[in-house]
Amino acid sequence: MMMARKQDVRIPTYNISVVGLSGTEKEKGQCGIGKSCLCNRFVRPSADEFHLDHTSVLSTSDFGGRVVNNDHFLYWGEVGRSLEDCVECKMHVVEQTEFIDDQTFQPHRSTTLQPYIKRAAATKLASAEKLMYFCTDQLGLEQDFEQKQMPDGKLLIDGFLLGIDVSRGMNRNFDDQLKFVSNLYNQLAKTKKPIVVVLTKCDEGVERYIRDAHTFALSKKNLQVVETSARSNVNVDLAFSTLVQLIDKSRGKTKIIPYFEALKQQSQQIATAKDKYEWLVSRIVKNHNENWLSVSRKMQASPEYQDYVYLEGTQKAKKLFLQHIHRLKHEHIERRRKLYLAALPLAFEALIPNLDEIDHLSCIKAKKLLETKPEFLKWFVVLEETPWDATSHIDNMENERIPFDLMDTVPAEQLYEAHLEKLRNERKRAEMRRAFKENLETSPFITPGKPWEEARSFIMNEDFYQWLEESVYMDIYGKHQKQIIDKAKEEFQELLLEYSELFYELELDAKPSKEKMGVIQDVLGEEQRFKALQKLQAERDALILKHIHFVYHPTKETCPSCPACVDAKIEHLVSSRFIRPSDRNQKNSLSDPNIDRINLVILGKDGLARELANEIRALCTNDDKYVIDGKMYELSLRPIEGNVRLPVNSFQTPTFEPHGCLCLYNSKESLSYVVESIEKSRESTLGRRDNHLAHLPLTLILVNKRGDTSGETLHSLIQQGQQVASKLQCVFLDPASAGIGYGRNINEKQISQVLKGLLDSKRNLNLVSSTASIKDLADVDLRIVMCLMCGDPFSADDILFPVLQSQTCKSSHCGSNNSVLLELPIGLHKKRIELSILSYHSSFSIRKSRLVHGYIVFYSAKRKASLAMLRAFLCEVQDIIPIQLVALTDGAIDVLDNDLSREQLTEGEEIAQEIDGRFTSIPCSQPQHKLEIFHPFFKDVVDKKNIIEATHMYDNAAEACSTTEEVFNSPRAGSPLCNSNLQDSEEDIETPSYSMFREDTPLPSLSKDHSKLSMELEGNDGLSFIMSNFESKLNNKVPPPVKPKPPVHFEITKGDLSYLDQGHRDGQRKSVSSSTWLPPDGFDPSDYAEPMDAVVKPRNEEENIYSVPHDSTQGKIITIRNINKAQSNGSGNGSDSEMDTSSLERGRKVSIVSKPVLYRTRCSRLGRFASYRTSFSVGSDDELGPIRKKEEDQASQGYKGDNAVIPYETDEDPRRRNILRSLRRNTKKPKPKPRPSITKATWESNYFGVPLTTVVTPEKPIPVFIERCIEYIEATGLSTEGIYRVSGNKSEMESLQRQFDQDHNLDLAEKDFTVNTVAGAMKSFFSELPDPLVPYNMQIDLVEAHKINDREQKLHALKEVLKKFPKENHEVFKYVISHLNKVSHNNKVNLMTSENLSICFWPTLMRPDFSTMDALTATRTYQTIIELFIQQCPFFFHNRPISEPPGAAPSSPSALASTVPFLTSTPVTSQPSPPQSPPPTPQSPMQPLLPSQLQAEHTL
User: Fold this and answer.
1) DSSP readout, 812-861?
2) Confidence at residue 712, expressed as pLDDT on a 0 to 100 scale
3) Which helix or strand (DSSP H or E) is residue 888 part of?
4) More confident residue, 1108 or 1423
5) SS3 state at 84
6) CA–CA separation, 880 and 175 (whole Å)
7) For the chain, what percent of residues have pLDDT higher than 90?
8) What is the pLDDT of residues 1138-1164, one digit of tens each?
9) C-alpha span between 506 and 504 (Å, rounded)
10) Which of 564, 566, 770, 1141 could form a disulfide with 839 if both were Cys (CB 3.0 to 4.6 A apart)?
């Protein structure tokens, strides 16, 4: 076999001839067998180059053209292919056919006159200049197609493809075709060339024909058969490659794939290409207005487009594009339709919202009605062409109006019907809601707090369920309940105000006793407004406690009328009427009203102050303004580096008043400079009236040192700084130890923290108003207080208009925003009157503390609470002070028509008559009254001025010199000054009820004539002399019928005097550290909750030791010893009998000297609850001390002083008498009383105050309450500053425990309790346990273990003691200590280190007996033990190694001793502990340090 090869030997070339049935229509039928389509698909496989119509009927000219070239074969051209073995080859394809003359329909005459069978078997073909054939259109137009000649004009055939048409051909018999093919095969076989049988048109093939063709091939030497379809492009390449394999025996054998398998592969390929092409179209074509020409250009380079066009052709690609465009357009129209249909209900609601107008209209009539509406064109557009979706309106995106022809569609009609139905349903639902609300309002079964489950059966019926869901009714019911609950609470609050006399007579403090709460509930129990909250007992009790808090600590914030408190209104009116100098200066200094000013002194040696000032200024804006919490503040810095006694380095200048001071040090020298400068500054201001530098907030900061020249260690500097901070009682910051370098790396967060503290201190100082001094008093003739009731239905503007608009009204010099000066002619002379305009609750605090010449008291004639507050106020006013009662009415008609107004007016007149006061009524509906109506009252005040001032002077002098026993037993001794200007806070509630000195007693406001006497009072160092000197003159005091304590002498240092002196001058109740910043890491005892809250303090009448918490230093215990026990009886400090004699003598002097009494004794309408005043023992509500036997004897014998009230009347209500009798305590034999509860005082609990074993189980070893509290704190409060140090609100703590007592599943997060409230309640749980969490018998072992000097051995010994704890105690103790350890890890944020936490918690967890000296002196040991447990929690409870001790060492005993202001001089002897008390505690390390000659003892 010879192969024709081209010159290029590297790529083999094969010449293949395609033969098959050909001839006239008679021979081959109406169509050929598909030889041309097979060649076309192989040579030009692209779908766009494939043609189905290849005719063999030609004209003579076409037959003679260069393409046919008078030959009966066609040259299809040269094709390159890569075979299966990846070898390139070339193939020349020739089709043997027979062309028919279109005139004669006979074969054209060619150069060779042989028949087709012989001609087709030729292996040598020659035709000079014969062109390659493309399609029929090429004939006659050869110049328009590529002209490629058959190579060399001749070809040598290498193999044959014998085609057999297996389709059902028209006018052709398949058997005849097989005969023709058989003859043709015989002729081809003679050439010895390879032959492959190709079955064409298999896509239309007949199964029998295919089978016969395969039979034929088997009969002819097992010929290879390939089933093809040129139309579907199936197995075309396979047919040619199979022949090439037969031609070149060196190639691998080609696998013959059956037609249907190959068709499946081809179909999958086409489907994949189609999917990719459709994805390409959807990605490129987004708008339905795109055209094929521009899109096809964009897609031309994309392989997805090329592949699909190659397989299916451009026309099919365009068809898919047009389908996508149609889909986009349809989607666009549908979107527009949905928008229109969505807007149609809105159009209906806007144009035809009235059901009465369209209730009976059809859609067609409603359409006409719509056209008549004024806003029709706002919603609809009328198009000239319809329908709208066939017009260009679909592309008008700017016009969102609804095409009006849309109303003719079915969906629009359905929407109109839905609109009708909606209006009808809404009308019905509204009727149902209205009917339901009416049922709620009229039903007697619906009361405040009644659950829906209980109320549902009374108010629901079938109609309600039919039209509305139950959730709707529940929502309406909830809103109704809120309304009636709010109304009931308002009415109950008004009821509490109507019983103001009761609350003030009970002398309640922040922690009312159970007995007093019982009296309140018993008195109010029959009131309907009390019963209205029967189902809301917890909230009702909370309201009572809140009101008690208001009574005990009245401020603008705690006022029930807040924010409409009278004090706030008056301050606004007065400040708007006058521009005070201080306000003017502030206004001039600050151009922006939203900017406050902070004046900061920076004290530091060797350039430290200047460098820090520059760093802070770098953090400010260009105009020296600093942003704190989103607000701008003007920051003024004063760096000081020299001698502060020089004017140039003074802390304060005429134009600069400091608000705080930053003290910087980086060495011992710079620290010494800070201490000396502070002491010099404080000494220079001693004795000044404006001595605010003594309490200037300080912050001590350790900064990085620029080069280490002295070899000082950071640790020693920190220790020294902490000791100095403790001495100065200021904040200590050591950013250097935390890696925060000073200079170019200052911590802006810490600077902001310091400035925030300054702002808080500044606000507190600005809010405190001091009592007018003697000099201020000399500037005015009379001091009048005008009292108004908060919440009265009258405007304060109308009442005060005559006062503020008077020409004689001027600004008050004392700087108060609630006082003015009046110059009025009274008698023959003009008088300067200082008129203080206050609310009643602010006025209560000044009845005894301030000099007041008269009161003008207003009340509303239509409000019971207003007159009740007036009565409560007048009860404690001395009868020598003139009173002007003013009743406010709506007019004469109101008085005639309103029974309440008439009664109130009558009662006011009767009170005025009984107290010899003046009474007038002012109708507020008429023009404002004039000041002339008060002139008779002013004249009365002038007449009594002298006696009032003298009495006030003597009273205050006596109070300043009274014995400590009277102070200790006064329920109000430790109460804060009740001033409305004081800031309300939770700490106020926590103020202890005892005080060593009467710090809340202001300096008597004396006239100039009394200055000498005041100097004597200040300079005299003996209290007994003053008592004997004034005993005959004091006519307004009845001594308490209790055994007096001997006078106590104190040795007070210079520093101590400065604080006492300052406290008396300011007239405010201040503690030593009340206005300083507290150190975050150092121990400041005044910063912690009172340890005595958690311990038992049994009293013994025979003991001479009195242990009380000192008011100015919370957390300390002062032990006062009687060192004058052997004094003579003449000193007035003898036995009980002497005290009784002295009392009787003073009682007899009353008949000789006419002394002033309280108005309650002169008016029968005042003091109607006075019987409750003497029903309770003297002492705070929390720890009612034992009533002295003498008091009972005097009460039983009918003893009464002039101010005393008879406890029981013979005709008194027996029920009340029984209540009062039950409140008395039998104190003849004092016994150790059970632990008092801090919060749980008004209800009997089964959870709080019970043994620990009753609230835990083996499955739940932690009490649920403790678990809930700690989980809440760890979730929300670990970053709370001062957690466990800042006390929570007592009323909220009680409410929390009460609610938990009722529901153990209480969710603290939902109830919105503050973190401090939850923390306080948790501590209260432990303090109420019958036995402490750390058992008493274990405390001895713990102390013994703590004595071990070796640290590691000490910790192991403590761990062994822990193992001896009862299981319940151990599990709870482990849980609590682990929690405190977690809290201490956040000390950088919450400022609570393990030391601070141990100070707060050790009294609660260990509860030692403070009546023994051992416990008092060993408190530091207890605290250190708890601190070790917190620090080493992983070691004690989780088997971890011992951690390293913290860097800062605890304060030394000497440092602690230096902070003790009072010490005792008598030796200490331990008293035997009572039964069930804690065991004796080993002697504290501090005890040897206490000098024996000092007189009072302090322990921490």
Assistant:
1) -TT--TTEEEEEEEETTEEEEEEEEEEEHHHHTTHHHHS--SEEEEEEET
2) 53
3) strand 883-889
4) 1423
5) coil
6) 148
7) 26
8) 334 333 343 333 333 456 788 888 888
9) 5
10) 566
Q: Tell me the two tokens of residue 442.
A: 């009229």
Least confident of 282-296, 438-452, 873-887, 1082-1096: 1082-1096
pLDDT for the residue 1049: 38
pLDDT attached to residue 284: 92
pLDDT surpasses 90 at 330: yes
Q: What's the one-letter identity of residue 85? A: D
Please, are residues 1183 and 515 in contact by the beta-carbon 8 Å criterion? no
Tens digits of per-residue pLDDT, 1219-1233?
Answer: 444 433 343 334 444
Q: Give the DSSP H or E segment for 954.
A: helix 945-960
Q: How far apart are CA 550 and CA 974, in angstroms?
A: 16
Q: Render 336-391 in DSSP notation, one character per residue.
A: HHHHHHHHHHHHHHHH---HHHHTT--HHHHHHHHHTSTTHHHHEE--SSSSGGGS
The answer to whether the CB of 598 falls within 8 A of the CB of 755 is yes
Give the separation between CA 36 and CA 34, rounded to whole angstroms. Answer: 5
CA pair distance 1250, 1298, nearest whole angstrom: 15
Query: How far apart (Å, rounded) are the C-alpha atoms in residues 1169 and 432?
Result: 51
Query: Residue type at 952?
Result: H
Average pLDDT of the residues of the chain: 74
Q: Which residue's structure tokens are 């006013």?
A: 877
Q: Looking at this protein, which amino acid is placed at residue 71?
A: D
CB 975 within 8 A of CB 552: yes
Rounded to whole angstroms, how far apart are CA atoms 785 and 883?
A: 10
What distance in Å separates the CA atoms of residue 200 and residue 880, rounded to the nearest whole number?
Answer: 135
Q: Are 1164 and 910 in contact (CB under 8 A)?
A: no
**Cα–Cα distance for residue pair 1381/1390, rounded to 1 Å:** 13
- Residue 213: both structure tokens together: 């063709």
Record the tokens describing residue 1484, joined without a space: 């504290």
> Using an 8 Å Cβ cutoff, are 1183 and 1215 in contact?
no
Q: Which residue has the higher pLDDT, 390 or 1470?
A: 390
**Distance from C-alpha of 713 to C-alpha of 705, rounded to nearest angstrom:** 11
1080 contacts 732 by C-beta, under 8 angstroms:
yes
pLDDT in tens, 1365-1424: 999 999 999 999 999 999 999 998 898 999 999 998 888 898 876 555 566 567 788 899
The pair phi, psi for residue 756, each rounded to 5°, is -65, -45
Q: Is the distance from CB of 996 to CB of 1110 less than 8 angstroms? A: yes
Task: Pull the structure tokens for residue 88.
Answer: 């390139």
Kindly indicate the confidence band of residue 433, based on its pLDDT and cuts at 50, 70 and 90: confident
DSSP string spanning 13-61? EEEEEEEE--SSHHHH-SS--SHHHHHHHHHS-SGGG--S----EE-HH
d(CA 791, CA 1055): 46
pLDDT in tens, 643-681: 888 888 888 887 888 888 889 888 888 889 999 888 888
Evaluate the omega torsion of the peptide bond into residue 387 and state whether it is cis, within 30 degrees of 0.
Answer: yes
For residues 300 and 252, what is the distance between their CA atoms, to the nearest angstrom? 38
Comparison of pLDDT for 735 and 508, the residue scoring more: 508
Contact (Cβ atoms closer than 8 angstroms) between residue 25 and residue 167: no
Phi, psi of 448 (to 5 degrees): -60, 130
Residue with tokens 């050439």: 191
Q: Is the pLDDT of residue 1334 over 90?
A: yes
pLDDT tens, residue by residue, 985-1014:
333 333 333 333 333 333 333 333 433 333
Query: At 1231, phi and psi to the nearest 5?
Result: -125, 160
Amino acid at 208: R
DSSP string, 233-279: TBSHHHHHHHHHHHH-TTSPPPPPPPHHHHHHHHHHHHHHHHHHHHH
Distance set, CA 849 to CA 552, 755, 873, 1003, 1069 (Å): 16, 35, 14, 8, 12
Q: Which two tokens stand for residue 1064?
A: 């008396």
